Amino acid sequence: MYVAIENVCFSYSRKSAAALDKFSLTIHKGEVISILGKSGSGKSTLLRLLAGLEKPEKGSFKIEDKVLFDDKTFLQPEKRGIGMVFQDYALFPHLTVAENILFGLFRLKKAEKKKRLQEVLELVELEGYGKRYPHQLSGGQQQRIAIARAIAPNPSLILLDEPFSNLDAELQEKIRKDLRDILKKADITSIFVTHDEKDAYVLADRIVKIQDGRINFIGRPCDMLDTYSQAALSSKETVAEEELVRI
Amino acid sequence: MQRRMANLNIWTVSATAIIILLFLPNLTIVAGFFTPTNDNWEHMKEFVLWKFVKTSLILISITALSTIFIGLSLAWLVAQYQFPLRRFLKWALILPLSIPPFIGAYTYHGIFNYTGIIQTALREGLGMRLNPAHFDIMNLPGAIFIYTIFLYPYVYTITQVFLSKQSASLIESTRLLGKGPWQTFFQVVIPISRISIIGGASLVVLEVLNDYGVVKYYGIQTFTTAIFQTWFGLGDLESSIKLAASLMGFVILILLIEKIMRGKRRYSYATTKVRPLSLIPLTGWKGFAAASYGFLVLTLGFFIPVLQLADWTILTFGTIPLEEFMAYAGNSVAVAGISASLIIILALVVGNFSRLVHGRLAKLLPKLTVLGYSIPGAVIAVAAVTSFIALDRFLAPLYRMAGFETTLVLSVSLVLLITAFIIRFFAIGFHSIETGYDKIGTDFRDASRLLGAGLTKTFFKIDVPMLKGAIFSGFILVFIDVLKEIPLTLILRPFNFDTLSTKAFQYASDEKIMEASQASLLIVGISALAIVLFYKFLEKELD
Predict the structure, then answer these.
(1) Each residue of B271-295: pLDDT tens digit?
(2) ipTM of the predicted structure?
(3) Rg from Cα positions in chain B
(4) Which residues, listed in sequence order, are joined to residue A62 by a DSSP beta bridge?
(5) CA distance B328 to B322
(6) CB contact under 8 A, A51 and B450
(7) Distance, CA of A156 to CA of A84 (rounded, Å)
(8) Each residue of B429-441: pLDDT tens digit?
(9) Domain ranges of chain A
(10) Inter-chain CB proximity B452 and A104 less than 8 Å
(11) Which CATH number fits domain A1-81+182-247: 3.50.30.50, 3.40.50.670, 3.20.20.70, 3.40.50.300?
């Protein structure tokens, strides 16, 4: 298995209930996983734990036999080689698009940096935007730059936190497809959390439903059809269905 | 909590060290209170302590009431009505804050004394025979006048900002329910702005308790003057520690009263779409009266003293050698610059720490350092000196090894003065930095770390550039405060080290009022400039 998450437990304080309870999951290389759950279900906590922004009580997390945390080890976020796209993108406002992307490429040589910058800008189809500042971009463009920045250092895993919550409803449909294309083209293993079933259907290879810090379903989007009433997939869902057919 | 301290590292260690060092001297005061008493203390306790308490109580209570009266009435006029000069007065009414009360005190004394402009004009111009006693302002009412006219902006600004953020519908519905303007003012405006009024007034009270310049110059006995008198007059540091401890208790009592009076904090509107108050035009004599009232306060609090200072500066120009003047102006800028820079650096470290760590204790610790601003300069002076003498004793063997003849090295150096400034003004810089950190949140930091940058690199590449505004405003605020500061500078400076404020104070104390004007005018000029810049900055932020 490429990514192995085992028995992860976490709670925000001693008194409160577990935000995450014995969470286990394995992921193939290149797979797109969606963590689907309501707010407070523990899905964002999972991302923060994987990123190294919170320290788990128990459990282990490995990528290709590299231990990111277990009973003995805890790698700091900057040592993990994991990319993350934040809900509000967190593009550094005082840096240009190019500088934002180059921020994570400090280990590369100058020529390589330039090449990689071009590559990722092409990937997200925003060539020529390097000199702009984040506030000069539209919401959708900001999101793509955030993805480009996260992908640029070639992370072994990329985490996306509610990638569509900050976009207009009309934009969302188009961008869902775009995002899937980008992730697949880059052949990058990714986990994204969402509360929106449509996001999960369109984007994910596999969906993990989570409730009160526990997994209550894992399966392909088509497996989930049975568990949902048809009402969830009304006529509006044509895009999603097309996607399902493709998968 | 241990688990959550995942990021225990150099930041945590240094922040904790800073907080302890900032807080430690204050503990020496508390400890000093419990040492055995001596005769001086027994004598003071029996005969004079109560007198200080009484004078200080009179000063703070009447000043608080009068600043509330002026500050609130002006804030309400500016927030609710349209009248001539309103736009100008709105920001100009903050200007009196640029005049340190001790400078205002000697300037007004200069205006009212026998050779001053008023008595001279009446005597020579109108040939009147005057009783100079009628013009004496060097007394308790005089001091209250000085504090009121130069400190009311604390109440004015806080209340005015609060009122202009209030929803129009709240005030308008009162009017529609049939209440006249006066009823609206007393039944709605005062109750809703209670928190900001109390907030502003308690700043005034703390300033008055901290003040040394005015009361010393006017010969009024308060806690602060008593602390220094016991220390230098009687040479009794132990008793002055006890006095300082009593004053600290007094301040803590006031902070508690403030907390109780604030009651449960009520937040203003949660919605962002609050329709601002639409201004009611005041026409005819009413508009004229409103404009005159505002202008009168501004004239007393700013124009008169500035014009008088400018006049004296022109009269005495050249009597103080330029080199000398430049030397102490340089000292002022150097001390204020160094202190402000250090405070900002320390505040950045502590602010970063309190953001990194989740625990309750870690959140509480930085709050402790904020106490420093409430503690009067006199107390900090005593605390700093006691701590530094102890430190020098501890380091004495080292000094001997280094070949110093004396055992007092640090406690007679600028290190002492700057340390005292840091303790006193840390809260000002920290508040600015903390607000900045709150505004940027933690996502940028997390994003930077996930892109492979460590905490320290993140700090320099992401946090500091994003905090530029907060760093700038914090620096300016501290700089101005140090520039104006008087008791700490006066007491703790090294021998023969003068700044603009100490020089102004000394000239004035030696009854060379005119000679004091140049240094004073420079202080006022720099402060006023900073206030104006600040106001423009703040206005932009509010938009």
Answers:
(1) 444 566 678 888 889 999 999 999 9
(2) 0.82
(3) 25
(4) A4, A67
(5) 10
(6) yes
(7) 11
(8) 888 898 888 888 8
(9) 1-81+182-247, 82-154
(10) yes
(11) 3.40.50.300
